[in-house]
Write a structure and sequence with these properties.
Distance between the termini: 44 Å
Largest sheet: 8 strands, mixed
CATH architecture of the largest domain: 2-Layer Sandwich
Helix content: 25-40%
Number of helices: 4
Order of helices and strands: EEHEHEEHEEHEEE
Structural class: alpha+beta
CATH class of the largest domain: Alpha Beta
CATH superfamily of the largest domain: Nucleotide cyclase, GGDEF domain
Number of strands: 10
CATH topology of the largest domain: Alpha-Beta Plaits
Amino acid sequence: MSVTDSPTRRAADGARLDEPTGEILVPLVAADTGPAREWADAAHHDQVASPMDLDAGPTHLNVNRTFCFIDLSGFTAFTREHGPHGAVERLGEFRRITRNVAAKRGVRVAKWLGDGVMLVGVDPRPTVAAGAHLIHHFSRRSTDVRVGLATGVALLFEGDDYIGEPVNLAAKLCAAAQRGEMLAMVDDTDLPDWVRADGDVSVRIKGVGSVGGIRRLTLAL
């Protein structure tokens, strides 16, 4: 029997199982809430007008979002120790788990950044949960992840790119975090009940200076 003809593995409830991991892949059926939908809803023009009749208008949109940057800490050293094949395998796991967690928590993968990722959420709590989930998952591996989060108003530019202070802050907090650490500019009300704030810290950010009120988040599992 060929690979393409092999029977699909099923869970007890009939959901398909992913062969390498055993994770249940449940089809998601939901209204589109991504940038394309936001852009279409915000357009106050005749969207099907001819080229000559389409009104001029802004190419940006203000949105309030939570931005989460995550990257594999020590990935360069891991690559030296395990070689390119081991590195590709670990990176593949990182991306697969990230997609799975983001989909289940309703958070969008905005872009891949080599051995990192940028997530965007419309609600802080699921976005915090997604970052903390990946901290938990990779704490049991030979590589950890580090996470930076920030919530605020940013520009959704040209329909698919986010620009603004919260985006930059989240990226800088990720870069400043230690292995397995999660730094966030969030309120306590934004935290799931299994994530707690372990005090405030100040983070020195190049080009900005010292930024206070940053929460160091830990898992209460």
